[in-house]
Amino acid sequence: MQKVIYLMWAGVPGPDFNQRLLSWLGPELASQAGVKRVQLNLVDDAVAAAAALRMENSAQGFDAMCSLYLDEDAERLVLQEYIQSCCVQYSRYHVEEFEALENTTQRVGSGQRTPGFSQVALLRCPQSMAYEDWRGYWQGTHTQIAIDTQSSFRYVQNVVTELAGSDVACYHAIVEECFPAEAMTDPEVFYAAKGNPEKYQANCQKMISSCQNFIDFDEIDVIPTSEYQF
């Protein structure tokens, strides 16, 4: 099974755009032959409180992300036409998915919103690092640090293998991390240290120090989203 991620930009972002994706695009894509699963990540009012976590360094942040899990018999061009009909610009990324932390506590039914929020980080290998070293540190060392120091209940690493479309930025990886809603505004919750300032400081420092080893903070883009499954 292959995973394809579309980053989408709306002509007019907002409730009407989001509702079209939820009420039409998600169900329509999920009904097509060869489509095993659809996930929509939307920038909506439910994540407005996370505005301070948003980072736009290399490009204007996307308005929606659509992830398709496809069998070989999926009509990819037809699916892409559905995507194109709902946005003015898109980027398509073929990815290899690594689910480092599975969501076992906040599962929802089709068309429903996953509790909390999903932080989507768009990564590039820094020019100062060899790709193999970058990926090796990220997946071999940083992964466990991220899980140990944060309150995330889902952590997905999407390693980009191919991109296409009207691309505005080439990324090497797309990361999805789901957090409790309180983590949008409470750093102690974000770093799994509610009511424990010393643990918060230690987790925050450990996480930031690790990120500095493989992330160029002038290039990373981070978008808080609501996650919906179909």
Q: Briefly, what is this?
A:
This protein is of the alpha+beta class. It contains 5 helices and 8 strands; from the N terminus they run E-H-E-E-H-E-E-H-E-E-H-H-E.
Note down, in words, how this protein is organized.
The chain has 230 residues and is α+β, with helices and mostly antiparallel strands. Helix content is 27%, strand content 31%. It has five helices and eight strands, in the order βαββαββαββααβ. An eight-stranded antiparallel barrel has the order 1-3-2-8-5-7-6-4. Strand 6 (154-165) and strand 7 (173-179) form a beta hairpin. Helix 3 packs antiparallel against helix 5 (197-211).
Keywords:
230 residues; alpha+beta; eight-stranded antiparallel beta barrel; 27% helix
Report the principal-axis shape: globular
Structural category is alpha+beta
Q: Helical residue percent?
A: 25-40%
Strand order of the largest sheet: 1-3-2-8-5-7-6-4
Major sheet: size, sense and barrel closure? 8 strands, antiparallel, barrel
- How many helices in DSSP terms? 5
Mean pLDDT: 95
Distance between the termini: 16 Å
Low-confidence stretches: none
Give the helices and strands, then pairings.
Layout: E1 2-9, H1 15-30, E2 35-42, E3 64-70, H2 76-84, E4 89-101, E5 117-123, H3 131-149, E6 154-165, E7 173-179, H4 187-190, H5 197-211, E8 221-229
Antiparallel strand pairs: 1-3, 1-4, 2-3, 2-8, 4-6, 5-7, 5-8, 6-7
Helix pairs in contact: 3-5
